[in-house]
Automatic annotation (TrEMBL):
PANTHER family, A to Z: THIOL:DISULFIDE INTERCHANGE PROTEIN DSBE, THIOREDOXIN-LIKE PROTEIN HI_1115
InterPro entries: AhpC/TSA (IPR000866), Thioredoxin-like_sf (IPR036249), Thioredoxin_CS (IPR017937), Thioredoxin_domain (IPR013766), Thioredoxin_ResA/DsbE_sf (IPR050553)
Pfam families: AhpC-TSA
The protein's name: AhpC/TSA family protein
Organism encoding this protein: Sediminibacterium ginsengisoli
Amino acid sequence: MMKKIAGILVLALLFSITLQAQEIRKMKIADVVKMADTSSVPLVINFWATWCGPCVREIPWFEKTVAEFKDQKVRLVLVSLDFADDYPKGIAAFAKKNGYKSDIVWLDETNADLFCPQIDKSWDGAIPVTLMVNNGKRYRQFFGQQLPEQRLLLELKKLVE
């Protein structure tokens, strides 16, 4: 009987670990552009990397502040620009260690000269950067630098009003 209970507990533990592991999808820039262009909800796309200090510092307040807009169905997507060696395990482990809850995708692109202008003509490749899109009101705004928490709140209000 004890072996049966132990077996059930092990299965339950493995199942819960599997549920907690975040899937990091691989995307091309065309997929990210399509996501932005076709989203039916207000969308915040943040480009970041695990090795980027300003990126890592802003993600917690992005998650917290975007969560305040859940009634307006605002969605946050974190687009990782990490190196291929870090995909998917390194990015997933970093996200888990830092408690990230948002959707995370990995940009499977290496030529910033080609992918950056597809997001915004002014993007020079530096991160963090953020694109906010609300297709319902034809709102599209690109932020080419870190967004402090108070500025993020103001910009989210513009996104949904």
